[in-house]
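In the laboratory, one determines a bound structure by crystallizing the protein with its ligand and collecting diffraction data. In a computational setting the workflow is compressed into a single prediction: the sequence and the ligand go in, and a structural description comes out. We illustrate the idea with iron/sulfur cluster.
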Amino acid sequence: MPEPTPALRVHQRLLAHYGPALWRTPLPPVDELVSTILSQNTNDVNRDRAFNRLKVAFASWEAVRDGDPAAVVEAIRPAGLANQKGPRIQTVLQQITAERGRLELDFLKDLPREEALAWLQHFNGVGPKTAAIVMQFSLGVPALPVDTHIYRVSGRLGLRPPEMNVEAAHKYLEAQLPPETYYDAHLNLIRLGREVCHARKPECPVCPLREICPGRAA
Ligand code: SF4
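The predicted complex, in structure-token form:
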């Protein structure tokens, strides 16, 4: 049996420590796309407040798409950067409609994975993380989103070259793990980053990965 990759060893240890991860109930893909755009540069609470306000203010995604830009900006203000995110959301919704004839993303399930990821990323403001979130968590197609926690933790663990940027880290880390592990690996690495491997002061003495981490503090 081949030796597990360092990333797989990390995943296995986190799975033993935290157990299988469970995210929220999956959202429909357009909802997930909008929610993920709202999440950029803010926390989950503010993202959800903005998302819920948008759903209350507009009866459908078509109504958001065609709505008054100022009303969209006002609805999503809790997420921050509302003047950027509002037009970005409306433009993406308009472009999806223009290309597909209607506002839906379920067709992505039937495309080859790489093609679907690339299609999502041709929209302004949709990068590899957002595309991977929609694919993995809404459409159930394996993809490994690399957020700020996973990027930091994977660097400290030596799972990627130190100078590699976050965009390139997506494909690099995916290649080191079996696709069926992406869901748990993503969520457990984020949990480790939030609870233990903090940006400023990692708590290495209590970290479940301390025995295999080259970046641990003495
Ligand atoms: S040992 Fe320290 S640096 Fe390494 S993953 Fe754990 S908390 Fe982060």
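Residues 153, 156-157, 196-197, 202-204, 207, 209-210, 213, 215-216 surround iron/sulfur cluster (CB under 6 Å). Keep in mind that any predicted model is a hypothesis to be tested, not a measurement.
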